[in-house]
Fold this sequence. Notes:
By secondary structure, the chain is of the alpha/beta class. Helices cover 38% and strands 20% of the residues. The longest helix has 17 residues, at 14-30.
Amino acid sequence: MFKKVVKIHTQPDAVTNAYIFNNLRILKGKNPGDCYYEEYLRHFEREREKFFDQYHFAVHYAINNAPKRILEIGTRTGLSICNLLSAYIDPKIAKRVVLIDVWNDGFASPGIVKMYFKALNLPLENVQFITGDSKVEVPKLKESFDYILVDGDHNKDTAWIDLENVVPLIAKAGVIVFDDITDRGCNLQDVWDKFKDKYNGQFDFGENHDGKGVGWAIKK
Length: 220
């Protein structure tokens, strides 16, 4: 029986850093009040050549695997999904993109995300925006996804619920990505460790701490 081979790249490199910072710089120009570009520069200054974060994982995952069905919990302004889709040779390969957020921090809205997509010439026709609490909205989904990012409310209880809620939605050989696990992020390592312990037989796990901390789980 054919088994899909999932390629994972977890080493930092200068080209990926240049790619990510170019995207962040372009999008900073579209939304000058958002300081995430400057925050990312501070992370890079600390880690230098070791720097590896959720965006790095996303870029290499897209290059090597080009997931067709994507779910994001915690889209905010769209930097994560923009970096992911920009790494496709043809971003239209992503046939279904579902973005869930409350969009309530003053710098984020579906309109900002759409503006970012247009700035990077990314297609919007397959994107669905869901405004609401992920604890309520995710259980309503009845489909499967190849790539799921859990990066919403970083309260430990909510982060755990989000992880639990996406387990039934991940396709075989798909990946769940969990951000901000180190104390330089939101200190969610204990939540991630609990998830690894509970689902050890169902996923292959990996993580990298050379940034804010990113973990991933590939469905067996």
